[in-house]
Amino acid sequence: MRLFARTTLIALSTASALLFGATWTSHSEAADLHIGLSADVTSFDPHYVNSGPNNSFAFHVFDALVNVDANGNLVPGLATSWKAIDPLTWEFKLRHGVKFHDGSELTSADVIFSLDRPATLLTSPGPFTSYTRQIVGKQAVDAYTIRLKTATPYGPLPLDVNSIFIVSKKITQTASTDDFNSGKAMIGTGPFKFVKAKRGESIELIRNDQYWGEKPTWDKVTFRILTSGAPRIAALLAGDVDAIDGVPPADLPKLKTNPKIKLEQKISWRTIFWHLDQQTRVSPYITDKAGKPLPNNPFHDIRVRKAISKAINRQALSDRILEGLAVPASNIVAPGILGYDDSLKIEAYDPEGAKKLLTEAGYPNGFSLTLHGPNNRYINDEQVVQTVAQFLSKIGIQTKIETLPMTVYLPRAAKSEFSMSLLGWGTLAGDFALRTVTGTVNPETGWGSWNWGKYSNIALDNLIRNSLGSVEDSKRRDFAKKAMGLAMRDYAVIPLHHQYATWALRKGLKYTARTDEFTFAQNFKVE
Q1: 393 vs 92, 135, 283, 417, 466, CA distance in Å?
Q2: Structural domains of the chain sorted by starting position, each given as residue range(s) with its CATH number in brackets
Q3: What would the pLDDT profile of 264-315 be if each residue is shown by its tens digit?
Q4: How deeply is 467 buried, as exposed, middle or buried, from its count of CB atoms within 10 A (0-12, 13-18, 19+)?
Q5: How far apart are CA 468 and CA 455, in angstroms?
Q6: pTM for the whole thing?
């Protein structure tokens, strides 16, 4: 059995070492960490696909101006401080002496280039532009000071820039996404340096000894991509990996009683919900029960959307299918997140009421519908899709399902190819979530970049805009809450549940569970 081993960690007792089978004999022996990941990294380009697994990995090699701690609070990153110097201008002070992995120094030019780059990636299936389009001007005051101008007052800019990774202008201005994916352009300022990857199997990193922040414990980190639960658990129990994320619910009982394993858990920021196609078109996966396409899209009618919601037994879904690793949702942000509207109640399970609504909407016999979702991204995601299909069949909606690996599912869903598609979204601000997943689609502003259903409501857009434009925190919270209430009462999307995030690790290691579900190798420590 292999595990971490390093003489500088000699504080571990011999008994502890024997527990893991770890040994060390000299100061030259390396400290290695192996982590099993439940989701693949679909792109190494830090500006190409705005998804949780990609962003979590990117934070090992790259940094952002502003970081977020385990509880969702903003903390300094490459910027040591930031402030609004007037209603339209934010100023960021950069750290001095930060080095990229090639030895070149970070300056304001790299930051401005990085903020510009997402808009140039026109084929991105999940763009980052919703975090950058509000910036209308960028000024390098000096090598370590930048000022960002917005067209209107914009309070949450520091949180926005947490999502933009800073790359080297010298390296990246002539690099493509393929150059990142090959490793050629993987030059950041982060705590680890990229070594190699075998797509869909493993990623290797080594420690950046010139890192500006706290140096990681580990000389080398290997991520193993283990998207299926059984192999991930087997790898942990066999000692092939030291920690895993995305613990399958069915395995929790045996892990809790295993003396060599410990669990870290936290309600995450991620909400799982359904996008409904609300375009004026013949929806591609909605037909009558004879298989003939319906001339009108039923999801245009709020009664049909409400019927879908009432047909779902969220408590049963959370308790049985998710085995207690989720709580029913009425919002698309978790409780405690800015914009959460606690006046919204969990939709009551009411199949008879749902049937009545369908009849009122002109579908007394229902219709046929195919549900789409991923099968390797969220907790028991395929089972969630199957279970919701069963719920809908009880109200007369004849259902089929198609679940796909996330790498196949995401590009198709992003093109709005489906009629009803499952998505999980995590954010630290409700107005951000609404802007991105329910805001009227506008490529020029970045709004609606993940609005797969093409929902549009001008009144909602105005509330979101007022929220984002409020520098005063209390006003922003009020607008964000009102926006959330409007979106949810209009069934812009159908919320299902908020996930728990769970990590399993071998005794002797510790990890602080994160609200954002990110798995950071640099945050694993030896007890």
Answers
A1: 54, 47, 19, 22, 40
A2: 7-260+507-526 (3.40.190.10), 268-500 (3.10.105.10)
A3: 998 888 999 999 999 999 999 999 999 999 999 999 999 999 999 999 999 9
A4: buried
A5: 19
A6: 0.72
